[in-house]
Amino acid sequence: MKNLLYRGLAAVLVGVAGVFVLMGSYVFINKPEIPAELRK
């Protein structure tokens, strides 16, 4: 049961990371100059 929980958590993290990567590349393509507060 715990294994399934970890697998679900990993899937959620991968999904969130994928969304952030897509958003980041989209913003980077449209607006190369990223504000300082977003660039960490």
TrEMBL record:
Keyword Membrane found: yes
UniProt keyword terms in alphabetical order: Membrane, Transmembrane, Transmembrane helix
Keyword Membrane: yes
Membrane-spanning residues: 6-29
Protein name: Cyclic lactone autoinducer peptide
Organism (species): Paenibacillus lignilyticus
